[in-house]
Specification:
- It comes from Candidatus Marimicrobium litorale.
- Pfam families: DUF5062.
- This is DUF5062 family protein.
- By secondary structure, this protein is an all-alpha fold.
- It has one domain: Uncharacterised protein PF16691 family (Four Helix Bundle (Hemerythrin (Met), subunit A), Up-down Bundle).
- It has 3 helices and no strands.
- Helix 1 crosses helix 2, helix 1 packs across helix 3 and helix 2 crosses helix 3.
- It is globular and about 30 Å long.
Length: about 90
C-alpha cells in the first residue's frame, strides 16, 4: 500500500462527502459526538455494502487500511486537476 500524497485531506473530504451521501440515502447521519474512527468505519462499510468500493480481506479491516480505501475512493470522485490530486 503506497500512501497518497494528500491522504489525510482526502479522508477528511471523504467523510464530508460520505456524510451527505449517507443522509441522502436515508441510512443515517454523522453526529458531532461521533468519533472519527466510528465515522470511518461506518462510511467504509456503507460504501462496501453499496458496492462502491471493494472490501478489504477478512481480518484486514484496520483503521489505516479503511482510511486508505476512503482516500482512494475520494481521489476517484474528484475532478481531474483538483488541488488534492496534485
Amino acid at each position: 500500500m503506497s500512501k497518497l500524497k494528500h491522504e489525510a485531506e482526502l479522508v477528511a473530504h471523504a467523510l464530508k462527502v460520505g456524510a451527505v451521501y449517507a443522509k441522502k440515502r436515508g441510512v443515517g447521519e454523522f453526529d458531532t459526538v461521533d468519533s472519527q474512527k466510528d465515522k470511518i468505519t461506518y462510511l467504509y462499510r456503507l460504501l462496501v455494502h453499496d458496492k462502491l468500493i471493494q472490501p478489504l480481506a477478512k481480518g484486514q479491516e484496520t483503521e489505516p487500511l479503511m482510511k486508505h480505501k476512503l482516500a482512494l475512493w475520494m481521489s476517484r470522485q474528484l475532478p481531474e486537476g483538483h488541488a488534492l490530486l496534485q
